[in-house]
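tool_call: predict_structure(chain=1)
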Amino acid sequence: MQYFDRARQLFEETRGDKRTRKSEGFPSAERGLSSLGRPFNIPITQNISSYLGKNNPLAGPVDPKTESVWLFDNTAYRPIHPYPHSQQPWQACFSAAFFKTETGRDLSKAVADIADKIGLKEDGSKEDRERGERTIAKRLQPFADIVAPARWVEVKLPDGKVQRLGPGGRSATSEQIITFPSAHSNGQVVETDAVNAEMTPIGPMSTTFAEPEGWLVMSDIDDTVKVTLTPSPVGILRSTFLSDPEVIASMPALYTHIQSLLNPTWFYLSASPYNLYPFLRTFLHANYPKGTILLRDASWMDLSGFFMSLTMGTEAYKTGEMDKVHSWLPKRKVLCVGDSTQSDPEAYGNIYRKHNGWVKKIFIRKVTDVAEMNNGEKNSPERFEKAFRDIPKDVWQVFEDPNELYAAVDALKAT
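tool_result:
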């Protein structure tokens, strides 16, 4: 599982990724990070059969005594056909992740390692150090939980129908398309939970219904709406495992304005692994319009893998995820919002050129408050011109202060 995911990211890594990772010290930082152990510990028959994914005849149900499942929020859509048809029924992609519970891993070494690297011992008293280590341990736990491949769970849909999700494959995640009854309206939100709700520690999933036409916002998370300090290995560790989650100044107000003006359906796209889903979901729900969160389906069992997830192959990954959303909602008008730390300009440029007329506007936050961005390359006009080649200048805008964007957002109302 890990080896395949890493091989894929190495294949998708661009020359820009390699240059950036080297200049920002990620390879050396990764070599000094602790491993969190084996990704799973299950009988050999289940281990081997998990390669069969959803066709696994040896898969079994989640054991509520020793296992749990996360259900991910999603967006329901009506399929679009090339020829006239009657109104299509609602569909949604249901995703779940399966874990072992209370696996008893000793995280003390990894916690101390992170604490040392972010300089926690230099920040205050012994009590501060201990308090910080407790926070690190809590946030690190989802990375250390052993995944449970070859598992399925029964959920109760809003109409009362019981549906099986899974089984999960090698990464212990599953995806499947489920059809809803037609009696739902645009913007409506419904919940789905496991038949045995004790299996879902982060609670039920929410489904938001989106008619074929209207607006759609595709927003990056890290350093677009949340301070992550992506160009800095130490910054990533501190913002992810220790610091209170922090919004990008003035972005919540901007997104509230977009919501009130355009009433879009929202997607939040990040290269983070799905281990961060509860953390990111809580943050987004507290500060921004609710929406579907799209994360990598790799459960990394060491912190170097986490760094790689955020810094390698992000352009290909994000382009692929947006292709998927396009297949669901090809008639929506899309506003893309991202930043200059990763490959958002390149990914959004790819999608604009690939799906003619789908993307109507692109906003890129020029990140200047991270020391590693001061080399000039990522924030250079040449970089943006190349990323948005053959795209009209009035489609894309680079900004530093979100307050610069209100006139452009207001203009979208007439688009």
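agent: The first strand starts at residue 60 and ends at 61. Proceeding to next step.
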